[in-house]
């Protein structure tokens, strides 16, 4: 189990000295941020406006003329527009291999975590921990993958690492059963408790979605890591990296399942992670996305790492026997130039342990 000291009520880009009030970790900056956000209700703010406001509060650098913020800031591979898309396919083939070792090998093959995380970064990791299911049931991101990525970020000098997901089942129950709570306790990472006060209307500028409530800790990050689990889904066929962003918004989420493939791409275009790591150490092959039985699970012992969200999902789709064009949101992701699933990506690496 974990204690409330690992939960945060209001997150910040550059936190002041924290204090614990009512069991939730608060900062002076976080309280001011919440107050200012609650004052401004006359019009929805865009993602750019929210980031500028956040950095003004924290005394951050000027952002004039700097696109696609905050992700892809100088010091990461995504900051260089000449950087080619890459994909790393990591396979655990040795009996008893350690997930920690496989995770580290995957990042090493991509040039090391320092290619993505810089000293002083506030990093938000978006796993899929939406269901109150034990790790072996493959409904949620494996806690060992989550823990390994947190440790890598900390080793790279991250100022703060936060775990954020707008869960479907009750948050504290999900934290306890999925293992995310134990990971937070072991690593010192913050677990953000989803609540309505942390949702803010923003303009997604999508083809289908415009103004929608966004889980603000996700857009406050200097760097954002998408850490989904691979599984089947009754409506979208599969849920992989791009669909994981449904757990980054609030509002009437059931409405997002209408025209779900375009919705997924709209969300993926808005959030644009620094990197995506798909957990396919074990996958759900039936009764997704919640499952609940070991008969729904297949062990794959795979991790897929990429700076191209479409390529990552396309590779993961192959684990289920699907071609990229078989999956609507992957096909649309390429159409709207979110990425590519061409098999001749310039940088492909395979890691086997």
Structure summarized in a few sentences:
The chain is an alpha/beta fold and 353 residues long.
- Specify the number of helices: 10
Within CATH, the superfamily carries the name LarA, N-terminal domain
CATH architecture: 3-Layer(aba) Sandwich
What kind of assembly state do the chains in view correspond to?
Answer: single chain
The share of residues in helices is: 25-40%
* Measured distance between first and last alpha carbons: 32 Å
- Output the CATH class name: Alpha Beta
Mean pLDDT: 82
- Strand content of the residues, in percent? 15-25%
Principal-axes geometry comes out as globular
CATH topology value: Rossmann fold
- Number of separate strands: 16
The residue ranges in which pLDDT falls below 50 over 5 or more consecutive positions are 9-82
Rg on CA atoms, Å: 19 Å
Structure description:
The chain is α/β, with parallel strands linked by helices. The protein has a single domain (68-352), classed as Rossmann fold, CATH 3.40.50. Helices cover 27% and strands 22% of the residues. The strands form three sheets. Strands 1, 5, 6, 7, 8, 11, 12, 13, 14, 15 and 16 form an eleven-stranded mixed β-sheet that branches. The chain has a three-stranded mixed β-sheet with strand order 4-9-10. Helix 3 (99-109) packs across helix 4 (143-155), helix 4 runs parallel beside helix 6 and helix 8 (260-271) crosses helix 10. The longest helix is centred in the middle third of the chain and has 13 residues, at 143-155.
